[in-house]
Hints:
Layout: H1 3-11, E1 40-43, E2 46-50, E3 63-67, E4 70-73, H2 79-89, E5 107-112, E6 115-120, H3 147-156, H4 164-172, E7 235-241, E8 263-267, E9 287-290, E10 298-299, E11 303-305
Parallel strand pairs: 7-10
Antiparallel strand pairs: 1-4, 2-3, 4-11, 5-6, 7-8, 8-9
Amino acid sequence: MNKNILGIIFLGLCLIVALNxxxxxxxxITPQSCLVTNQQVSLNGGxxxxxxxxxxxxxxxxEEVTVKAFEIDEHEVTNREFRKFIEATNYVTSAERSKELxxxxxxxxxxxxxxxxxxxxxxxxxxxxxxxxxEGRDFDPVVQISLEDALAYAKWVGRRLPTEKEWExxxxxxxxxxxxxxxxxxNPDGEHMANTWQGHFPSNNTADDGYMGRAPVGCFPANEYxxxxxxxNVWEWTQDPYYPDRRNxxxxxxxxxxxxxPVGVIKGxxxxxxxxxxxxxxxAARHAQDTGLGTNHIGFRTAADIL
Length: 307
């Protein structure tokens, strides 16, 4: 089997033990409103404390870093926005030509029934495979996007991907040293601040935040810089390669769990992150991702220099 497939299923993202549980029924919650304005937020840049010494080893050490002024999308790129790119350029995503890239079929990685699987036919139009669709989900974040796909879109709109430093600076919104993008309490006053997994992962998702999976962008509170879903919902690509020590960000990246695969840094966590597993819904959190493979919980937002 292709090493990339093995990497994502067995060693990538989060190592998941398949359990024979049923996901319990949940209440249906319809959000009152979700903001979609397709704006960019201009940040003056500055110096901040990056990383954390309190969680996963690859988040350490904390260090003082400086970023220049830049713009960043207020929310993740949506299916509607990505469709415009496809229609204008006839671009074919990595998942739609993965057989040419060494996979047994065209497809991508999907989390289903408590485990990761390579699903033939999974792509941005069919995030969970041939039986799924984005019909009526224009404002969901686009997923099943490889790093190459994200870079191609960013170039088309005259922008780029954020660096890991820029992304974390934007996510922290001036809250140095805080565990979360909004402070030190995960659910302040009982409010869900991001789309994450509630309950014991992977056996029970109570969906108390209103969503079993991806949410439309802008359905949760913005951070102090006006950015929506910078935490949770879907992981987001940065332009940096992944190394266990982020200070070595040069080359194609390296992850000891999948040593033969080029890996990039994804940030922010997703709807699959729970308190008992992953817990990477924090600005300092980071993860290695095979640059040639998307999943149904990885998207992106774009950035640009301010001259």
